[in-house]
Amino acid sequence: MAGNPDPAACAIGLDVGGTKIAAGLVAYPSGSVLARRTVHTLPQRGGEAVLSDTLALAGGMMEEAGKRSLDLLGIGVGVPELVDPAGNVTSSHSLAWQDLSVRAAFAQLAPAVVESDVRAGALAEAMYGAGRPYRLFVYVTVGTGISSTLVQDGRPYAGARGNALIMASSPFSVECGNCGATLHPILEELASGPALVARYNRRDTRAAVRGEDVTAAARAGDAAAVKIVKSAGEALGNSVAFLVNVMDPEAIVVGGGLGSAGGLYWDSFTASTRAHIWAENSRALPIVPAAMGPDSGMIGAAATLFRNLSATVLES
To answer: What is the pTM of this model?
Structure first.
């Protein structure tokens, strides 16, 4: 990502997650993070309390922009929920914001946009990261949850209602060939960070707290952890290969804490993906880790604002 030694303008990027809220002053147009702050989300307090804290965090970043004599272009907000084309939050899986006027609340501070976190992260990779070489790529993020989006010509595809990101939350109903029972496996319950923890803690008396604990145990040779991590990567690869078979992208870019962790999870995932791709000339497509790291959400949220401002200028 190119630096800007003397930026004149910036946007506030807010990455609102289930665990923490990260805020950054993001330089325009370079995407460099000039300042950052983080607070705990504590979503169990309710949507209004989380929104109030996020607005206060944005206000603090506005003050920081003023101290640096930066022209504040606006606020971009990325959330781990469904977001429709008008910027309305339409689900309440992690944050109880579905019935709140989120964009309007931030718009009282500055011009504001609200976007799903996976599309924000994908945009960051398209503009500044691992997606730059590709006109058409699939972005997958794997952490607390698993989501995906197709990116074409630098624009994440939202779908008709903003819902084109759900790849791991719905059950895949299948009949067991041995016992005849109907099974309803869900990818997020097999391959996400919390899934690794839950599966490992059912098998081992040493309690894991994070997905990284399970992958670390696998690296250390823990047989239960190895089996869980390997099967999780295989399950993810099966689903990502389905996206490749349907969408025929040039590449796959994988972000999120678990998706970028490497090791057995990554090796199992990439092998499974290639094994389940049907077309021979697609099987060797690049599968690359995201480049933006933990800043991808805040940079992508700000980049969503940059993109919308550019579109407005072009239309006027």
So the answer is: 0.92
